[in-house]
Structure prediction request, 147 residues.
Amino acid sequence: MKFGIGVLLLLGLLVAAVLMQRNLRSKALEERHRARSAAELEDGWSRVVVGAPSGAPLPGEEGRATEPAPAPGVVTVPPPPPPVDKRVTVEAGMSLSKICEEQYGTSRGGLLEALAAYNGLDSPGAIRVGQELRLPPRETLEPKQND
Prediction:
């Protein structure tokens, strides 16, 4: 008797599971049909919604570094190019202090010494006619400045 009740109970649960599965499947098919008709897609076609990129490499691109794409509407500005040194060829009558005064507006000791060190000179007075000096932006020399 107990065995028969157990079998009937199992059969009842199996029938309930089959009916529930059919109900869920029919609802899913109806929803898919509504979505396709709203999107005007024919049978056999579907729509893919792509979200934000994950940053994971695409198949076949393992090992290749990739940068994530910027968010929509975000403008990326490239970094400014590094400042370029001006170049001056020393002529007769020129001194490092005169060059500093013309290029930077001052010839104070700290700036003068920083410029001499930047050009590998032993002292500010160690320039020669025909020598080419590099004149970086003042910001490059200011941390060494003792003004």
Observations:
- The helical segments are 2-39, 96-104, 109-118, 138-141.
- Residues 86-144 form a domain with the Membrane-bound Lytic Murein Transglycosylase D; Chain A fold (CATH 3.10.350.10).
- The beta strands are 86-89, 132-135.
- The first strand starts at residue 86 and ends at 89.
